[in-house]
Every structure is written in structure tokens, then in C-alpha cells.
Amino acid sequence: VASRVGKVYLDEFHRHNIIGFDLPWHEPDISLFVIKGDMCGFSRVMATEFYKGITVRLHEWTKTTCDELDFVEVTGGDSITMIDRSAGKIVDSMLKLLKRAELHREQPITFRFGGSAGPITFESVDRRLNNKWESATVPLGQALRSSARLEPHAPKGQLLVDSSFVKAIGRNSDELIIEEIGPGEVPTLVYDAETRHFIVQKSSTDPFQSTQLYLVKPREAG
Under 8 Å CB-to-CB from 102, ≥6 apart: which residues? Predict the structure, then answer.
């Protein structure tokens, strides 16, 4: 087959699964879009009478704005993780959540968002709750770490993503505006002029990620 088809066959050859007697079939990890958001100034909110109300509201807003996503979870009262196979859908849900938060009459708030894409697996784990062990499903994958590393560097109210997020969109980007970030536009990150990449890491001992960075938003919001 390789002699007739050539490089195309060799590039597309599936090395993970070999068909044969008694050989198990391994499903490939699904590549999904991930957005992690964090509430800006939440530590100040915790010291006010709005703390409990805002935390409850975030769960309510999440239910109404992210109901169609493959996975969504609120943690710590101020952080949210969104996962979906559609870039347009996940960005739209993010924007709806952001609008709900910014229009909250009692205490307007905003978020920062970081995004990435890649293989995500969902595993079942046991958690201790109310003196009982209960099963829960958690997502695992490099894209979760990458999006979490980007989130603190995003401008308020915006989504900062890496090149994996943009590459995963591919040609299906008509509904999104994608703007590449240049040197000096993210002052909290080191920029390598030679590779034209930003160096993303939590600390000097943290494994770093070298990537181009982009701001992404729905086209109708532009």
C-alpha cells in the first residue's frame, strides 16, 4: 500500500491500533477545547456581604449559560472550567456567562479566561463528601494545565488562548475573531523574539510552554 500511495499512507498510518486476533482496541483520546476562567478581585468580594450571593449566582449563571457544553465545573466559588468539541459553542457560553456577571446589579464582576485544546480523557474518581465516598468524573489532559497557566495573564473580560486552540479551530473560524498578540502586549510573560513565541510557566521551576498567543471573541462582539 505504501508503494502505491506513498507519504500520505505513512503519515496517516494508525500505529496505536493493530488489527489482529485477541488484540484490544484502544479508542483515541478526543481533542477538545478547554477554557478556564477566574473571577477578578474575588479576594475582595470574600470580605464583603456579597460573598455568599456571588458564589451561589455563579453556579446559577453556569447552569443557564453552559448547559449545552460537554463538561462544565465551578470550583472554589470563583473558578470555572468549560470543555467542548466546538470552539464557537464554548466561546459563546463564555461570553454569555461574562455578560451575566458584568450586569449583576448588586455586585458587578468580571472574569479572565485562558484557553487551549488537546486530547482530554474523563476518569472516574472517588471523593469524600458528608462522611461518604462518592464517585465523580474529572477531566485529564495537558490542555487543562495550559489554559490554567494562561488565565492569570489574560486582560480582564477577555479570552487569551495558545496556538493549540487556534490550530484546533482550523478553517472553521468564520464565527470567531482571532487576534494574535505581539511583544509587549502581555507584559507579565517573557517574549522570545527569535521564535516569536511567549514563554508560559507558573514559576521558574515549572515546565514551560513556548507558544504564540491570541485573543479570541465571537465575531458579533466585534
Answer: 108, 109, 110, 157
